[in-house]
Amino acid sequence: MTKKIMISENAVFTELEASNKEEALKKMSEAFSENGFVNEGYYESILDREEKAPTGIEAYDYGIAIPHTDPKFVNKDSLGIAVLKEPVIFNNMVNAKETIEVKVIFLLGLSESTKHLNILRQIMELIKEQGVLKKMVAMDQNELYYYLQKHLKSE
């Protein structure tokens, strides 16, 4: 049986306004907190990890980022997504000195590190086709929510 990862509807953002990655991640983290998916320190630890190991990726149509952190901050496996109104700067996963203008953020809250790889693989799989991100960026909140529900599994 495939277990579904929790995609909370209020952690799916379209046209999210944020002046930088900190603000974007704060809004997304708060949605997780409100649902009780993550505990105290989650947001700080996301920023901390982003400093040490950036998660910006140059994808086909847009830059994306897949921030995640230590499982100890997670109560329930969860995934959030934000399509930003204007891109924000993240550092490149491959070369931390380079920056990427990120338009779509996939925020992960996962209780075991093995799940990270699984979800990362699925996200990469999903966005590797040209045009998929363009399609996602154009969706409204509801469409985006159901699209992710359909395409991402936790196991």
UniProtKB/TrEMBL annotation:
InterPro entries: PTrfase/Anion_transptr (IPR016152), PTS_EIIA_type-2_dom (IPR002178), PTS_SugarTrans_NitroReg (IPR051541). Pfam families: PTS_EIIA_2. Residues 5-151 form the PTS EIIA type-2 domain. PROSITE patterns: PTS_EIIA_TYPE_2 (PS51094). It comes from the Bacteria. This is PTS galactitol transporter subunit IIA.
